[in-house]
Specification:
- Helices cover 32% and strands 24% of the residues.
- The protein has three domains: 109 residues, no CATH class; 133 residues, 60s Ribosomal Protein L30, Chain: A (2-Layer Sandwich), CATH 3.30.1330; 178 residues, Fe-S hydro-lyase, tartrate dehydratase beta-type, catalytic domain (fumarase, Alpha-Beta Barrel).
- The N and C termini lie far apart (66 Å).
- The strands form five sheets. Strands 14-15-16-17-19 form a five-stranded mixed barrel. The chain has a four-stranded mixed β-sheet with strand order 6-2-7-12. A four-stranded mixed β-sheet has the order 8-11-9-10.
- By secondary structure, the protein is of the alpha/beta class.
- α10 links the parallel β13 and β14.
Length: 507
């Protein structure tokens, strides 16, 4: 019999969550670096370069890879011979570990979890509770896998009940383009096949905890039907041409992981969950000898990559920019932004909408006229930081507010990540506005361009408050120009055609 101490569980969970906040798994870095070397699309290559540079900076500085430090998911395999020393349940031990990790004074992580999800959606302030899955197994050890899953990728999870004769490949190839780029490719696809609805989804999530090994599989060839399916999906999903950040390119996924389970003869449940560029998970085993010790990776595991915006990048003064200037910006063009901008996410937009509907004035300091808004919920600063990691959030969530903002507030443009939907694009075209894209998965790198930060409104919303940032040479890409042309449409279409393995469907 092994005795597992309460304090060892708490400390191990806390340490693991801190660890994955700033260390990418080395298999991810290795495979992303190889994809970077293979990439032929300059826009996608630039995006991957920023992700890799950001990753190394986080490993060195012990700060979060992404501002969205995730919802915590924990898988526990509990040996039936384990005994416990402590007064808390295993669930409470894990949640205490989460609490300590996210409130760590040297690397405070963003609290993103809201209680009362169908109602007031009040932030729990410490990122608890975690989503915990437990399984009793033979043995006398406690095996734990922890993961931190960002909302941008989690929101793109898909599930379907196929007929037994339906093609899984066809469903995946039809579904992945509908996911857009909000899941921050290149990443992984976890697929669960069989069981029941909830079993398929759980398997898809568990599959994302497996190491990336697709290149080894490519080299040796498939040994069974499941490996054949993995290879087929890997090749065909990449042939869609979506590319890094949805800008078009050769690599959309670094691996496709599949788990299966027997199912009812009338059923074929299939779940698909993507992991983003901020892939974060760690595995450890407790055997009663003390808290887990995770291996510290060597900085030699990260490639030496440099990136610059280039001599053709257009410098923009946000304090003086005019509608006439933004009308000249071209899709795909790189800009370096300097000056003041306001921030806002879902909760802030909803509150602004309510204020304007009542005919009231916006709070002092919240004047969008002639200005840009950055869709971001930053991590709190530590030590001498102006702000913590502050990468963009998925812009499509703000699509339904776009016409209101452009029509009623005098807003000139928006900054976020991934594509905009048809409603937002039409509003941008109508108002001759612009949408700029920053790289998702490069949050710490982006934060280095922010020189000043202050909360100007809605402080009760926590990370969703409205901030004013002063930035210097913040790199962005023109994603939707004043004419409504979107690089997230033109880029993938071009690269799908160039790759030439999957026909381009035209309307």
């Amino acid at each position: 019999m092994t005795t597992i101490r309460q304090d060892d569980v708490i400390q191990s969970v806390a340490d693991a969550l801190q660890y994955i906040s700033y260390y990418h798994p080395t298999d991810y870095i290795k495979n992303l670096a190889a994809a970077y070397e293979r990439e032929e699309s300059q826009a996608a290559k630039d995006a991957m370069a920023q992700i890799l540079i950001n990753s190394r900076m986080c490993a060195e500085g012990h700060r979060p890879i992404c501002q969205d430090t995730g919802i915590v998911t924990v898988f526990c395999k509990i040996g039936m011979g384990v005994r416990w020393e402590g007064s808390l349940s295993l669930t409470d031990m894990i949640n205490e570990g989460v609490r300590r990790a996210y409130l760590h004074p040297d690397n405070k992580l963003r609290a993103s979890i809201v209680a009362d999800p169908a109602g007031k959606r009040v932030n729990t302030r410490d990122n608890t509770p975690a989503v915990i899955h437990m399984e009793l197994v033979q043995g006398d050890e406690l095996e734990i896998t922890v993961a931190a899953k960002g909302g941008g990728s989690e929101n793109k999870s898909k599930f379907v009940m196929l007929n037994p004769s339906d093609s899984i490949v066809d469903w995946v190839l039809n579904t992945v383009p509908l996911m857009g780029a909000g899941w921050c490719p290149p990443g992984m696809l976890g697929i669960g096949i069989g069981g029941t609805a909830e079993k398929a989804v759980l398997m898809a999530k568990e599959a994302l905890m497996d190491p990336i090994d697709i290149q080894e599989l490519v080299a040796r060839g498939p040994a069974n039907a499941m490996e054949e399916l993995r290879l087929e999906l890997y090749e065909k999903v990449n042939a869609l041409g979506i590319g890094a950040q949805g800008l078009g390119g050769l690599t959309t996924v670094l691996d496709v992981k599949i788990r299966e389970f027997p199912t009812h003869a009338a059923s074929k449940p299939v779940a698909m969950i993507p992991n983003c560029a901020a892939t974060r998970h760690a595995h450890f085993v407790l055997d009663g000898s003390g808290p887990a010790e995770l291996p510290v990776p060597s900085l030699e595991d990260w490639p030496e990559i440099t990136w610059s915006a280039g001599a053709t990048a257009r410098r923009v003064n946000l304090d003086t920019v005019t509608p006439a200037e933004i009308a000249q910006w071209k899709p795909g063009e790189t800009l370096l932004l300097s000056g003041a901008m306001l921030t806002g996410r879902d909760a802030a937009h909803k509150r602004i909408q309510e204020i304007l509907a009542r005919g009231e004035a916006l709070p002092e300091g919240v004047d969008f006229h002639g200005r840009f808004i950055y869709y971001v919920g930053p991590v709190d600063p530590v030590r001498d930081e102006v702000v913590g990691p502050a990468g963009p959030t998925t812009a499509t969530r703000m699509d339904k507010f776009t016409d209101m903002m452009l029509e009623q507030t005098g807003l000139l443009g928006m900054i976020g990540k991934a594509e905009r939907g048809p409603i937002a694009i039409e509003s941008i075209r109508k108002h001759r506005a612009v949408y700029l894209m920053a790289v998702g998965g490069a949050a710490y790198l982006v934060s280095k361009a922010i020189r000043k930060s202050r909360v100007v409104a809605f402080a009760d919303l926590g990370m969703e408050a409205v901030y004013e940032f002063e930035v210097e040479d913040m790199p962005v890409t023109v994603a939707v120009d004043a004419n409504g042309e979107s690089v997230h449409k033109t880029g993938p279409a071009e690269w799908r055609k160039r790759i030439g393995k999957i026909p381009v469907v035209t309307a």
